[in-house]
Amino acid sequence: MTCSENMNLIFLGPPGAGKGTQAKIISRKYSIPQVSTGDILRSAVRESTPMGIRAKEYMDSGALVPDEVVIGIVEERLQQPDCEKGFILDGFPRTVGQADSLARLLEGFGKRIDHVVSISVDDEELLKRISGRRTCEKCGKGYHLIFDPPKDPAVCDACGSALFQRDDDKEETMRKRLVEYNSKTAPLIQYYSEKSLLRVVAGIGSIEDICDNIIKTIDGCRCDNP
Ligand code: AP5
């Protein structure tokens, strides 16, 4: 058995830290799905489902969506067959209440979290990253206009579809998201540190180097504590 099989991971960090970017790469490397509550909510907003209509007003203002909505999403998603051999939770949990609910949920499934990867990046860098972020409307591939540019700023290199800028990436909304992160999500760093699950990885540097550090950190911890 390799060090990386059957892993249940949480990626924690402020908006723009690179959780989604890294989760996509690690998901491919370890063949475990990325479960992004932000992506699931944006898809519900696009499809105007009742949940999407409810979530939209919170997301547009930079606020967190109520716990009971996102907990329901995660409960349903983690029961899908592709999560049996592991998963990466990207953007969940975001509050201590969500973290407590997740622990109860996983206990019921006979599972546990192996590592919480906390990606740390300073606010100035976060604002630069968010303002240049573009995402493919079809395949979901992410870009940055300066740090990870597509060949054509409006077109996805991978599938040729149009790139869009997220509605909540305006500077004013981004600042509100940072306030929400610092007051409601940052306490999870202490929460998971006390459970000896926290692995802090610096989020500054190239995407490839950060990915290597994440892999070294989680494989190192797993090999030390099989
Ligand atoms: P969500 O979609 O989860 O957004 P977020 O946590 O604010 O995180 P982002 O997606 O903005 O950033 P990221 O860390 O994934 O960075 P990325 O990899 O894209 O949530 C959106 C909203 O949904 C919330 O505000 C809330 O309303 C709601 N929501 C979601 N989950 C919820 C929950 N659990 N509870 C309640 N509400 C919830 O990178 C950013 C940019 O930087 C990209 O352009 C990328 O190319 C670039 N980049 C990445 N790495 C690097 C690097 N090393 N160097 C240079 N550029 C880089």
Secondary-structure blueprint of this entry?
Blueprint (H helix, E strand, L loop, with lengths): L6 E6 L6 H12 L3 E3 H10 L3 H12 L5 H12 L7 E5 L5 H14 L5 E6 L2 H9 L1 E4 L5 E3 L18 E2 L6 H15 L1 H8 L3 E5 L4 H18 L2
Parallel strand pairs: 1-3, 1-4, 2-3, 4-8
Antiparallel strand pairs: 5-6, 5-7
Helix pairs in contact: 1-9, 2-3, 4-5, 6-7
The structure holds BIS(adenosine)-5'-pentaphosphate.
Which characteristics define this entry?
226 residues, alpha/beta, Rossmann fold, 8 strands, binds BIS(adenosine)-5'-pentaphosphate
Explain how this protein is built.
With 226 residues, the protein is of the alpha/beta class. The protein has a single domain, classed as Rossmann fold. It contains 9 helices and 8 strands. It has a 5-stranded parallel beta sheet with strand order 2-3-1-4-8, with helices on both faces. A 3-stranded antiparallel beta sheet has the order 6-5-7. The longest helix has 18 residues. The radius of gyration is 17 Å and the shape is globular. The model has no long low-confidence stretch (mean pLDDT 93). It binds BIS(adenosine)-5'-pentaphosphate.
Strand order, main sheet: write it out.
Answer: 2-3-1-4-8
CATH superfamily: P-loop containing nucleotide triphosphate hydrolases
Taking the sheet with the most strands, its summary is: 5 strands, parallel
Share of residues in helices: 40-55%
Number of helices: 9
Strand content: 15-25%
Write down the CATH class: Alpha Beta
What is the fold named in CATH at topology level? Rossmann fold
Shape: globular
Q: Spell out which ligands are present.
A: BIS(adenosine)-5'-pentaphosphate
- Poorly predicted runs of 5 or more residues: none
